[in-house]
Amino acid sequence: MYPKTLAAVLLFALMSEVIAITIGSARNFGVCGGQTVTSTGNTVIIGSVGTSPGTSITGFPPGVATSLNAGNVAAFNCIADISTAYRACKDAIAPTDRTGRPLDGAVLLPGAYKYDTTAALNAGQTLTFNALGISTAQFTVNVGTQLDLFSNSKILLSGGAKACSVFFCAGTSVVIGANAGVNATVIALQSISVADAITNKGGLYGINAAVTMINDKIISCA
Question: What is the separation of C-alpha 46 from the centre of its chain, rounded to a whole number of angstroms?
Fold first, then answer.
């Protein structure tokens, strides 16, 4: 085994006990917001949509989803479980502080990464998560404030990385630009705003506020 690969594997072994995030019942939800979920156009959610404690879900139809859960027990459990995942993401020990560095072109190995303030993947750029062949690999990107995934940006997976094992947790909000390709569980303490025609394998969760979408396709982790 090459020395760099061996070092990366050893790093993952050290981090694996710290990074053990599960999202519980939230895996059945493609989208969940604390107050509102709003869709414009023909959004497709392969999974459930929920709000709790809020009860406003609009735009379905014409949007479609496996089920709608406005302020019910299932939505309450989703927000509770994703809140637990958010805290675990925030608590993960991050040996790599990337504050001030764009995500553009980065290849991230299993483990935890931290931005003290904002983080961005700029328009047309790619970010790759490489699991190094480790089937249980997880990745956390802890963003202090706002995460921006700009138009036509792409999150790529390699080395057996799984979209549902990639976690972004933003301390305020997340903004995703048009035609972005996202492969991750995206959690914002407040809101998530999604532009036209994005795709995501993984849920979008705005714990305290809203999730808004336009003609998007979201596939839950169920």
Answer: 16
DSSP string, 140-209: EEEESS-EEE-TT-EEEEETT--GGGEEEEESS-EEE-TT-EE-SEEEESS-EEEEET-EEES-EEESSS
pTM more than 0.85:
yes
Would residue 218 be called left, alpha or beta, if left means φ above 0 and alpha means ψ between -120 and 50 degrees? beta
Q: What would the pLDDT profile of 103-151 be if each residue is shown by its tens digit?
A: 999 999 999 999 999 999 999 999 999 999 999 999 999 999 999 999 9
CA 221 – CA 9 distance, rounded (Å): 26
3-state SS assignment for residue 95: coil
How many Cβ atoms are within 10 Å of 70's Cβ, its own excluded? 16
Instruction: Enter the tokens of residue 155.
Output: 């999150």
How much is the pLDDT for 96? Answer: 82
Contact 102, 122 (CB under 8 A): yes
What tokens were used for 107? 């290849």
- Residue 85 token pair: 């995942």
* Measured distance CA(204)–CA(185) in Å, rounded: 6
Q: pLDDT (tens digit, 9 = 90+) per residue, 140-175?
A: 999 999 999 999 999 999 999 999 999 999 999 999
